[in-house]
Write a structure and sequence with these properties.
Length: 96
Amino acid sequence: MKEEQIQTLHPQPDKTNKKISLAKYHQIKDALSGILSKKELSHTDLMEALYVEVKDTFVGGIQWYGETVKLDLEARKVIERTKSKPEKYKLVKVNS
């Protein structure tokens, strides 16, 4: 049986992001959301925190999947970049 896939989005509309495993997408998305629910982080700090969070349970390139899912979440307006220097990522507050 073929693994279910998701077509990820890219924040720049003219760019196409990757099609990846839906299970891996959700694992990385949940980890990123959990990390960013605590505080805003720079790109480097976010990817390091993601690695620590999933290194024992994730099969695949954590940094690659992390970047792919981060871009998708930006395109979906779930996370956003701050205007600060250095730029940081934060979870967009959603009323649900």
